Amino acid sequence: MDPLNDSAILQNEPVIRFGLFAGIFSVMAFLEACFPRRDRQISRKLRWTSNLGLILVNFLVIRLAFPLSLLWLAGDAALSGVGLFNQLDLPFWPVVVLSVILLDLAIYLQHLAFHYVPFLWRLHRMHHADLEIDVTTGLRFHPLEILLSLLLKAGLILLIGPPVLAVLMFEVILNGMAQFNHANFRLPLGIDRWLRLIVVTPDFHRVHHSVIQRETNSNFGFNLSIWDRLFRTYRPQPEAGHDDMEIGLEQFRTVSDLRLDRMLIQPFRRN
């Protein structure tokens, strides 16, 4: 492979990631305000304060636990010849695309595990306990879940040896798509019908946040929609329709459950 300038990518990673995060978040928040898909029942002041506060907590936890990013790990793996793609003489761009696809498949399988393994579900259920769904829900994950996901991705990077650029692309796409497919804006049905053939749309993913368990255990994809179709976890629409479906979990339905402190201790609370 002929890698791009990895050092330049590593040096500019924080600027690239924050710039794209802020840009996508602003666009999604604007679309939600102008073209809402569902009526808002709970003040954004409480939900957004808690959900955005969680981003700061997760950032601090990640920086303490992993001083170097996944991109640095991919760069070290390339220099050391660690990982499948670093052992093969393959064209650069096909390897980038294949790496992103494999990482996306891994996140789909991880998502399945976080639903069906009881201990992992206790961590992941905080994401589902949001009583409404919007762009900030896509950023609402418990710090312990974030750490476990980082360990999984780190292991996969050492296994397959993706280029630094591929890891950056995947991380940016994953974050951006999480904001997009959780956003509460009305995507025209004709566009949604065609777009969901390739990627996960807001209407596609919203089903996954239904209070009905069989709907919660469907539509696990974040980026590519093919995994749900391939593994038969795809559910086209919620039974009650998008306007009337109930969001969240049955055991956490009070407004106080939306506070940041209660979100952080939720995995350790009884049902």
From TrEMBL:
GO cellular component annotations of the record: membrane
Regions that span the bilayer: 15-31, 52-72, 92-117, 150-170
Keywords, in A-Z order: Membrane, Transmembrane, Transmembrane helix
GO terms, molecular function: iron ion binding; oxidoreductase activity
Span of domain Fatty acid hydroxylase: 97-233
Chief location bin: membrane
Name this protein carries in UniProt: Sterol desaturase/sphingolipid hydroxylase (Fatty acid hydroxylase superfamily)
Species whose genome carries this gene: Aestuariispira insulae
Highest classification ranks of the organism: Bacteria, Pseudomonadati, Pseudomonadota, Alphaproteobacteria, Rhodospirillales
